[in-house]
Amino acid sequence: MHIHSCLSPCGDLGMSPKTIVAKSREAGLDIIAVCDHNSSENVEATMRAGRMAGVNVLPGMEICSKEEVHVLALFGKLENALSMQAVVYAHLPGENDINLWGDQIIVNEKDEVMGENPHLLIGATELGLSDIVTHVHQLEGVCIASHIDRPAFGIISNLGFVPKQLGLDGVEVSWRMPIQTARETFSGIKDFSCITSSDAHYLEDIGKVWTGFILEAPTFEEIRLALTDKAGRRIEV
Ligand SMILES: [Zn+2]
Ligand SMILES: [Zn+2]
């Protein structure tokens, strides 16, 4: 549910749509989400590459809030992800400096370079966490706090806890900490659905950890049900 492409300045240039889906298939993943920093511009190409390779690719984005907390926004429809991207771009100051932060490559489903994204994608937006959750929910998406166990850009390290009133749909624990350890370490997450993802920036990281979902089909709506533990759908890590 959290894979970066070559669009993220910190993502390896080898993280192209075709190679991401090929590696995901090799790792046995039925469904993945591409979540670049503050942008969904490589999602459509990866969805197309996924259709050819038999991997369902969800449109997503990893948004950096003004509190410098990372949250994953996942959507069922590409157009909703792109609507969220427009909101993010309108609140994302600065331009990328390739020499300082790295390339932000936009590619098509054949891995052909289409251009460079000029925004400062590594930066923080001017959107507060609650604004982000509200926008994502209005666009029928789900919001999951990223890598809550991490000292950098994690909700617990930056806010001290996971506020219930935010209405987050879940929390993500990084590959560095087993979910059971996270539940013991951060007692405040007991009421939240918990996933783990690779947060892959390099091909070899894809599938390093993954979340098992009990679903009828590998789709966004089924994942949404599993996050709420409804209709027999559930998370089974
Ligand atoms: Zn992050
Ligand atoms: Zn990430």
Index terms:
237 residues; TIM Barrel; two-stranded antiparallel ribbon; 10 strands; globular
How would you describe what is shown here?
This protein has 237 residues and is of the alpha/beta class. It has one domain (17-235): Metal-dependent hydrolases (TIM Barrel), CATH 3.20.20.140. Helices cover 29% and strands 17% of the residues. The chain has helices at 17-26, 43-53, 78-90, 98-101, 129-138, 155-159, 179-185, 220-227; strands at 31-34, 56-64, 70-74, 105-107, 113-116, 142-145, 170-173, 194-196, 213-214, 234-235. A six-stranded mixed β-sheet has the order 1-2-3-6-7-8. A two-stranded antiparallel ribbon has the order 4-5. One zinc ion binds at residues 2, 4, 62, 146, 199.
In CATH, what is the homologous superfamily?
Metal-dependent hydrolases
Query: Using DSSP, what is the number of strands?
Result: 10
Bound molecules: zinc ion
Estimate percent helicity. 25-40%
CATH class: Alpha Beta
CATH structural architecture: Alpha-Beta Barrel
Biggest sheet character: 6 strands, mixed
* Number of contiguous helices: 8
CATH third-tier fold name = TIM Barrel
Low-confidence stretches: none
Mean pLDDT: 97
Distance between the termini: 13 Å
Shape: globular
Structural class: alpha/beta
Element string (H = helix, E = strand) = HEHEEHHEEHEHEHEEHE
